[in-house]
Specification:
alpha/beta, seven-stranded mixed sheet, PUA domain-containing protein, PUA, PUA_sf
Length: about 450
């Protein structure tokens, strides 16, 4: 991990302030411990004024303040003239030395949250609750959704998924761990939340300077290990110890789309996890569905979910097998399906492995295209942010089509569900790509 270089430390005093001070400077003067100032290099200011919250160490010229700030401390972020452009939370070891929380113009128009993390957390979570309410979440038909989506809800490093009366918190920033009790207090005020399950992303938090010994999953004493949810009218049992937060709410709208196009068709669901796409296909009238996954726990949940929804056992089969090996065997058996869905795990966790991951995506999709009847549909997904942000997925699919001897037409492109907002000033927050192809 790149370390923040040693920076010039100066004293921050009243006499160093210009005659006309900004709102943040005025508020900082009244902080009992003082507020350090992170000064950006010339030419490095605009991207952050435009809203990108991640101030990387290479953009920093110097730090003004004694004693120097510690990880988790509130700091001002200033341009080369030392005029504040906003404030955020400092990190002495991360490649991102500040996560901006509020800009100067926002503090000027509404100073309630200025330099106050407790008030800012409360305000941002309340705003997120209201946005989801306007999106119709939760509802009688869907009570599984994302409440906080990191930068998309302007709380970088914090994810909160709601599953019925359980809130699952995925923490991936040092500041989230520092303000754990304040976050839990805000969640606890939501009247339909009865349990909180805290799931720290240990590897990411270690890179953010958090001591691994201080990290452990926490949940309320009565929090269940499994719970039932409803999504688009379909009931699921989910494991709160399962992958990610326990359920992939980001694919909700894509799963519902599958239910609209599956009537009377044979469907193959590769990397099916707990049966989300498979059950939606059956709900939409699919003739029969085959689900493939390597995880025994996931397949047990998928089978249980089929029973919960009174699915005829003759219409659904879940098999434990590697997706690639299954597809190769199915080709030898001359099998094919009207609709094939492939939603593999993240193959490109970083840009460094993008080239090798591209080959894996190409090979998987080439096999999937060969299993799709000519004129049939392939829904293919990538949850790798590096792939989505690079914009190369369609080129990968074109290469896969050439390998398979098929021609493809793009019918639909989608991302995550609407409760997973993306901040356009931080496109790195986009990760899910879902593409529907006609294969001929």
């Amino acid at each position: 991990m790149k370390q923040l270089p040693t920076l010039l430390m100066k004293s921050l005093s009243v006499c160093s302030l210009p005659a006309s001070t900004t709102t943040l400077q005025q508020i900082a003067l009244h902080q009992p411990k003082g507020v350090a100032k992170v000064v950006l290099k010339k030419g490095k200011t605009q991207i952050f004024k435009d809203g990108n919250p991640m101030v990387y160490s290479g953009a920093v010229d110097r730090i003004i303040g004694r004693p120097p700030p510690k990880t988790g401390d509130i700091v001002l972020v200033a341009d080369g003239t030392e005029k504040p452009i906003g404030w955020g939370l400092y990190n002495s070891v991360s490649m991102f030395c500040v996560r901006l929380m509020q800009l100067e113009d926002e503090a000027t128009s509404d100073s309630y949250c200025a330099l106050n993390m407790e008030k800012l957390i409360e305000t941002r979570i309340d705003a997120a609750v209201e946005v989801r309410r306007r999106l119709g979440l939760p509802s009688v038909h869907t009570n599984a959704y994302r409440l906080i989506n990191s930068e998309g809800d302007r709380l970088s490093g914090l994810i909160i998924d709601v599953f019925g009366d359980v809130a699952v918190v995925a923490s991936s920033a040092a500041w989230v761990e520092k303000y754990k009790s304040e976050i839990e207090a805000c969640i606890g005020k939501i009247d339909y939340i009865n349990h909180i399950n805290w799931r720290p992303s240990v590897d990411i938090l270690k890179e953010d300077g958090v001591n691994e010994s201080n990290l452990k999953e926490m949940h309320s004493s009565t929090c269940p290990e499994r719970t039932k949810i409803v999504e688009n009218g379909i009931v699921y049992t989910i494991s709160l110890k399962g992958q990610k937060t326990g359920f992939y709410a980001d694919q909700r709208e894509n799963r519902q789309f599958i239910s609209r196009i599956s009537d009377g068709l044979r469907v193959l669901d590769l990397c099916c996890y707990s049966g989300g796409f498979a059950l939606n296909a059956l709900h939409g009238g699919a003739l029969n569905v085959t689900g493939i996954d390597t995880s025994l726990l996931a397949l047990e949940l998928a089978k249980e979910n089929a029973l919960l929804n009174s699915i005829d056992a003759g219409r659904i089969s879940f098999l434990r097998e590697d997706a690639t090996e299954f597809m190769k065997g199915a080709l030898l058996r001359n099998e094919s399906w009207d609709i094939v869905i492939i939603d593999p795990p993240k193959l490109a966790p970083t840009k460094k492995v993008l080239h090798s991951a591209s080959g894996m995506y190409r090979n998987l999709n080439s096999l999937a295209m060969q299993l799709t009847k000519r004129g049939g549909l392939l829904m293919t997904c990538s949850c790798s942010g590096a792939v989505t942000q690079s914009g190369i997925f369609l080129r990968i699919l074109q290469g896969a089509a050439s390998m398979a001897g098929r021609r493809i037409t793009v019918l639909r492109q989608a991302g995550a569900a609407c409760d997973h907002p993306i901040d356009p000033s931080y496109p790195e927050g986009a990760y899910l790509t879902n593409i529907l192809l006609r294969v001929s």
